[in-house]
Amino acid sequence: MSRFPGSICGELLMKIRAVYPGTFDPVTNGHLDLIQRCSALFDDVVVAILRNSDKTPFFATEERVEMLEDVVKGLKNVSVVTFQGLLVGFAEQIKASVIVRGIRAVSDYEYELQMALMNRRLSSRVETVFLMPAETYSYLSSRLVKEISALGGSVRGLVPPIVEQRLKRRHGRRR
Ligand code: PNS
Prior knowledge:
By secondary structure, the protein is of the alpha/beta class. The chain has helices at 29-41, 61-71, 87-93, 106-122, 142-150, 161-170; strands at 7-8, 11-12, 17-22, 44-50, 78-83, 98-102, 127-131. It is globular and about 60 Å long. It binds 4'-phosphopantetheine. Residues 21-23, 50, 86-87, 115, 118-119 line the site of 4'-phosphopantetheine.
């Protein structure tokens, strides 16, 4: 019999909180796919939107929070917050032991590897985990979504309906 209650093979079961950080300007179906995968893998998932980045965002932080909260409302172990400053500092503060980043294609890998290794240097208590979204989303990005929408193209199926509506509203279109 195990030495610890609630344990398997004598190992204590620990709950794992993961943080999924990003700009989410705006959230796409690729992000949502990743959030669903995180929700199934980890006990608790904190989607963390970076505030005050160097980039001027298209959607204000509050709007990005609203859209993300809407799309994750069916996932009970997922919450949405904002953060500023160092990601690892934030992860430690909320007691997250995992940072999740998505890799769509080999082209993402170099930048993500650099960031993951730098974050590891900054904190050995937080581990980066890479997840792949469904292949359908391998060419999808927030930047392309904004560009297509600004030029009058359809982004249906690429972003959640609330994002599609907000993009149309911002571009002064009704349909
Ligand atoms: O969605 P993005 O723009 O690819 O997300 C990038 C993000 C927010 C994860 C990254 O810019 C970040 O972690 N910023 C916080 C500042 C920080 O910790 N910088 C050091 C990274 S090694």
